[in-house]
Known about the structure:
Blueprint lengths: L2 H20 L6 H6 L2 H15 L7
Helix pairs in contact: 1-3
Amino acid sequence: MTSTMLKILALIFIFLDHIAEFIPGVPIWLHWIGRVSAPIFFFCMVWGFNGTTSYLKI
């Protein structure tokens, strides 16, 4: 799975979490799915930082 696919998957998860946050009466499992998105984004961030060749530009 590429990092772009991971980011799109995390985006879908965070969208479901936002739906559960702002619309009353939705199932609680939408919150649980949405909480998975932050570790995915953090993983992609660290993966991209480790893959860079110039740390001074950051």
